[in-house]
User: What shape does this take?
Amino acid sequence: MLYWLTGLSDGGDVFNLFRYITFRAGAAFFTALIFGFLFGRPLIDLLRRRQGKGQPIRNDGPASHLAKAGTPTMGGLLILSALMVSTLLWARLDNAYVWIVMGVTFGFGLIGFADDYAKVTKQSSKGVSSRVRFLLGLAIAAVAAALAAYVHPDGLSNQLALPVFKDVLINLGWFFVPFSMVVIVGAANAVNLTDGLDGLAVMPVMIAAGTLGLIAYFVGRSDFSAYLGVHFVPGAGELFIFTAALIGGGLGFLWYNAPPAAVFMGDTGSLALGGALGAIAVCTKHEIVLAIVGGLFVVEAMSVIIQVLYFKRTGRRVFLMAPIHHHFEKKGWAEPQIVIRFWIISLILALIGLATLKLR
Assistant: This one.
């Protein structure tokens, strides 16, 4: 919104700063961070009053989780509010990629909010049925994928870019939309499965978002994309502002979510943020790199899939409990130990993902 101030610039004044994505990304970060600090406590107090008993705690989970009874959920509203306000203020609103990613974030946020609301009002760990959530997620992802294919330049539309192999593009044709739907919905649900411990999901999301934001900035500039040997996606650089706002909002939330959490992110936040990561990957043509950068989320999701399939086939379990972070809890790891080690893994994977930009 504030980008229009560049029209007041003669090229040598403060208004000229608004032309630069880096300046607006920094401003978006601090706007979202300050928003989180200002409104975090009032929102938590409101959620506590409205929800009463807070998020229901599963009886079949680790025993340590029973001490968290009464903690309110839907804390993702804090991140999403900070993210949306900051992005609307600092991003170019004539950029299609910004609206695609914001639309996915908002849509999955609504699905998560409905699920959290059902759990709180019924005081049950079962909210909206998984089938309904899945179908709604597919619908949102289908619209986003079709729009991305339409907005992408002719040489990249419906194409799948491969990391390391700079000149390789696979023409998916009509299959690009269902492939992108899997990326977006898969990312949303993988982050949702990871959100099981205080602070476990939000930091890896911020790390992944920061990595994808840098990638968006690089592929959105013809000089950087030519130097790195990646495909130029005009306009994608504006997503750097979105990711900066996400990191700012995430840090504001983490202030209150650090163990012991004053509020849980809930599906409101995890589905929305996961969907956002998937949408950014689709828009920047880095869907495969997302699987590396977000490798922690992939492992969490695969642990659930493996557990379910193996149990159905043999009646036995591979892990003591799935997702895999609960397996380590059952083995006696302390919650902060798991969280910090998973953060370290996320950072390592992010660096590996960034390395693919130059390994060509």
In short: The chain has a mean pLDDT of 92. The chain has one domain: 21-355. Residues 21-355 form one domain. The two ends are 37 Å apart (CA to CA).
